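Re-running Inorganic phosphate transporter to confirm reproducibility after the cluster update. Everything else is unchanged from the original entry.
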Amino acid sequence: MEMIFLGVIIFVFVLAIFDLMVGVSNDAVNFLNSAVGAKVAKLRTVIIIASIGVLAGALMSNGMMDIARHGIFRPEMYSFENIMCIFLAVMVTDVVLLDSFNNLGLPTSTTVSLVFELLGGTFVLALLKIIADDTGTLTFAQLLNTEKALSVILGIFCSVAIAFFFGTVVQWLARLLFTFNYVKRQKYFIGLFGGMALTAIGYFILIKGLGQSSFMNDDLRAWIAEETPLLVAGGFVLFTVLMQMLHAAGGNVLKLIVLVGTFALAMAFASNDLVNFIGVPLAGYSAYTDFTANSMGNPDTFMMDSLNSSARTPFVFLLAAGIIMIYSLATSKKAHNVVKTSVDLSRQDQGEEMFGSSSAARSMVRSFNTVSETVVRIVPKNMRQWIDKRFSKEGTVIADGAAFDLVRAAINIVLAALLIILGTSLKLPLSTTYVTFIVAMGTSLADRAWSRESAVFRITGMLSVIGGWLITAGVAFLAAGIVVLVMHFGGFIAMAGFIVLAIVLLFKSNKPKTDKEPRVDDGQFLKEIMQIQDKDERWPLLRDHLRSVQTEVLAHAGACFDSTVSGMINENLKQLRKAIRQLDIDNERRKKTRHRLLIGMRSIDRTLSLEKNTWFHLAMNADEQVIYCLKRMAVPCKEHVDNNFTPLNNAQIAELQPVKEQVLGFIQRGITAIKHNDVAAIDTLLAEKEGFKRHISALRKRQMDHLQEDDSNINTTILYLNILQETQEFIAATRRILRSSKRFYN
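Result of re-run:
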């Protein structure tokens, strides 16, 4: 029996390693957002600084795992077997849940997931105990503690509202002070600003990073609390003088603030949130050692009173956890994906939006516009003009490829630290994820990064992330509860089943994905073309990129045409569904690509842009027609096969097969001609189009004549006519692509 539970403990520790990796991948947005978004240094440098902070925070963590030991449930009311079910369910659910959010690129809260997983698992067992209680005296208050969960929910709403409000107000005031051309104006305020910022960050490190550290005894904490005003005042004077001297020596004070802030947030994350990842397995290990030492071998009757005491984590566990988090931070692509979501939602310039629009976002934008118009009418004209001048983008100082400037990055870091300190002093459970993300959203709004064209998409993205936090609580509660319920009745077999399931899900999620057809990277193209200062040098890059886009469109169109016709001939429903899904993906990608290319067209010489605009838009419209033709062909074919209608007859298949081969050959030759800018080959293909048209028209006429015969199947013949009609339109749209490409490139 003990060996079985030892195996469970070992697996829980293995899951804890994955939990550390996926957890730091998600929480990386907390401390990388500002540094990455403002490009204060190379990504490698930022990662190194954050890694040092993570290791320092892990080693100085107090190691108190009370939330996992007795923060949610009352351990004296639960047996060792009950506790093992809860802990295993929590770890399985936590790893899969966090990994799912990482795959979606959405930040979530590890604190919320842990608390609600513990609450969900405990609630199910408490409910079962109450149902089985013959005396009727057992209550939920005796079995679980809901105060912690309620405080976390309160912290969600408080942190969202407070962080967004202060992020907007403080950034608006900072922009009035510095403007976007902050280099010219920072000499008057940079020492004072730097002193305030580093004092706040230093106090944050002292209180949040080291406040509960094992290196801090009670006397030292009491002294810090007593001398806080003196420490803050002295730090402010010292840092103000040092920052002014640094600026006079040619140093970049804002970069220093962001880098030091990155270290501080990383340190606080590792120091305080480490319990979210290793608290459960360590509590499980403590329960196991108590069970093996004091029980009589019956896990169903041995109660876990020992978990009421506090425990300290051995140094080797803290060191190992820190190393694992550093490795994950440096190597995880999912961490970069989550950071990208936050940075893109707060970027200053226009570009592709990651999220669509929603009715809630549209309503909020309309309401905000109404309020804004009212405020504009009230504010005197002279003041409005002065404010607009301070927010002028002329002379903007922003690094190449950065999403926003150093002023906003510094405000993000400093304000997040101050709000977390405030929450700590007021004993509010403000999550670092909530605060850092929402502050970034508020500062981007104050910086007028949300234009009328992008506001609805940015708000939708913000609401999606906030909704994801709330969904985390519900999903964690339900999933852990279901897992515990199954384990309770299924015993060791159910435990083994969930262990296997967790392994399979993690393997599938982290299996390297091979992309057989790498796509053209529009985002990288846009970054490259914007970094080129000479407009004449931008044209060749834009021309070559559009050529790559057009050849990719034709290649995908040819593949979808082949899948559609082959799927219809062979009655392959899977192939037809795959073709429709691919067309939908291509259509969404086409919209984003057109938007990016249009931004590129604006960036080249105006005379050249006006000359090429007509052919550019004709080519983009032809791309759209290609996809729509294929969609109008594929959907009826899929419905025909799905309904098990009569397939194409042998005569129709014999006619269609050569047409398919001719079309695919035409597409392939068109790709080659565009790729090599072969004008002669394009002219030949354009001339061949009329031959295609006459041949397909003849086939259509023959089928329409055949439709009058009694032995013809009406549904099949109409479908075949639709295939021929859309094939003809497909070739016509391809011809327009070739014609437009010829004129655009030459």
